[in-house]
Specification:
The chain has 16 helices and no strands. The chain has 488 residues and is mainly α. Helix 7 runs antiparallel to helix 12.
Length: 488
């Protein structure tokens, strides 16, 4: 049934072919998951949808992607890994292809939020953890690092091409492109991915001859399997540490940078191709960084590795607002360091999960940890959009405040000018009457009022200048929105 197993028997362990097939599945999944970030601006232009509407679909996608993880791992135990993955790929190929015909926001939410979000939960990190635990005893960290790097390779392979297609052909061809990619991978899984090593007469890579054989396929309900694993995990402190740190991981990668970075570049005047190219650079760096992280997790304390990974990622995010201010080197420096650390946290997290919960429960428990990752991503994806609109509202309120200040400063300056003019008349009369002591006092008051008048005029000018700048910015934003609606 698996001719490749006979070919590989005297060359290398079949586990590496299982890793290669899984890498391909996760690579296509990464390409599908990267597609909405390229589609965001074109969808705004085509349909006049707000970024909040699109971000809602992406937030649902990210949340379901994570929440499906433990149930997908449980389904792999109940129905088999091959059946689960083939079913998920069929849903992805069909759903993504149908989305090329969508014309309403609810269709975006249904297809890219619900269908794609749920199906990709069975073909990404949870799948990687299941394959590694089924096929490896040694080199687990390296194997997981290679699989996790598939997300980087997916960005590298798909993003620049998709950005170019969007710029020249529109958004519809790119959804057909990724749908075809998912359809092509489906028969490869059917032909080359055995259920487990014992299916082709092998043991796990590095497993001793007297080790226990692979456990029999579970007959329990997948939902019961998922919640049974969760009930065990919640009693262990390590689970909560992994869950909440992965929440931060998801918020800072898929939620913030993965979803909004290309649109953020557009806000700073950079093209979609350049923004996608920068994400591709991060993908190249992550390919090396995550693979190296897997190698390190086989040799060093994984808790120490996570400490450094999260700390360095935080420093990179602090630098990001300043990166756009450097003409040439800001974004490349950010892309280099952030890319190396993009998902380097995954191999140590999987390794700790396996050590704490055992190889059978680890994929399901890791699925719950991934749920935390994607809840963080959904929180950041939707929260960033809401923050952007809050900033817009604050700018609008500041315009009104500056306008009121300018009017108030102008009235004060006008009143002082009138008082100064009347004091001029008094000063002339006192001078003609020869009242020198009183004249000195009046001239001192006159000079002080003139100074106050100039200061209030200066404040009025500053307020009017600030009002004009903000008004021009809001006018530009409104004009762009109107142009998008007219174009649709």
């Amino acid at each position: 049934m698996y001719p490749a197993a006979n070919w590989a028997r005297n060359r290398f362990h079949y586990a590496w072919i299982a890793i290669a097939v899984t890498f391909l599945v996760m690579l296509v999944t990464a390409g599908i998951r990267a597609t909405p970030s390229v589609m965001m601006v074109p969808l705004e232009r085509s349909f006049g949808w707000t970024r909040t509407t699109i971000s809602l679909a992406l937030a649902i996608n990210l949340a379901l992607f994570g929440l499906m993880g433990p149930f997908a791992a449980a389904a792999m135990q109940r129905f088999g890994m091959r059946r689960t993955v083939i079913g998920a790929l069929a849903i992805l190929a069909g759903g993504v292809a149908v989305s090329s015909r969508m014309s309403a926001a609810w269709q975006m939410v249904l297809i890219w939020g619900v269908l794609v979000g749920g199906a990709t939960g069975a073909t990404s990190m949870t799948l990687g953890a299941a394959v590694v635990n089924r096929w490896f005893t040694q080199h687990r960290g390296l194997a997981m690092g290679v699989l996790t790097a598939s997300s980087a390779t997916g960005q590298l392979a798909f993003l620049p091409l998709m950005a170019w297609v969007v710029e020249h052909q529109g958004w519809r061809p790119i959804v057909l492109l990724v749908a075809v990619a998912a359809a092509v991978v489906l028969p490869i899984v059917a032909l080359l991915l055995p259920e487990q090593p014992s299916s082709i007469g092998l043991r796990r890579l590095g497993e001793s001859a007297d080790a226990l054989t692979d456990p029999a396929q579970s007959q329990a309900n997948p939902i019961a399997i998922a919640f049974a694993a969760l009930s065990k995990a919640v009693k262990v402190g390590d689970f909560w540490l992994l869950f909440f740190t992965f929440f931060i991981c998801g918020a800072s990668t898929n939620g913030y940078i993965g979803t909004h970075f290309i649109a953020m570049c557009g806000d700073y005047g950079l093209s979609e191709v350049r923004g996608a190219g920068m994400l591709a650079v991060m993908g190249v760096c992550d390919l090396f960084g995550t693979t190296l992280s897997g190698w390190l997790s086989d040799r060093f304390n994984n808790r120490v590795l996570l400490f450094w990974y999260y700390g360095l990622r935080g420093l990179a995010l602090i630098f990001l607002p300043f990166a756009f201010g450097f003409q040439y080197f800001g974004l490349p420096i950010f892309g280099l360091f952030y890319g190396l650390d993009w998902v380097a946290t995954v191999p140590p997290t999987v390794r700790i999960t396996s050590d704490v919960f055992g190889s059978r429960d680890a994929p399901v428990v890791f699925g719950w940890v991934v749920a935390g990752h994607q809840l963080g991503a959904a929180f950041a994806a939707l929260g960033t959009a809401c923050t952007a609109f809050s900033v817009f509202a604050s700018m609008r309120d500041q315009v009104y405040q500056d306008q009121r200040n300018a009017e108030r400063y102008g009235r004060t300056a006008q009143a002082l000018q009138g008082i100064t003019a009347k004091l001029d008349d008094v000063r002339k009369g006192v001078k003609e009457a020869g009242q020198e002591p009183l004249l000195g006092f009046i001239e001192a008051v006159h000079e002080q009022l003139s100074l106050e008048h100039r200061q209030w005029l200066g404040q009025q000018t500053d307020a009017e200048s600030a009002f004009t700048r903000l008004q021009d910015t809001l006018t530009k934003i409104s004009s762009q929105a109107s142009a998008k609606k007219a174009g649709s």
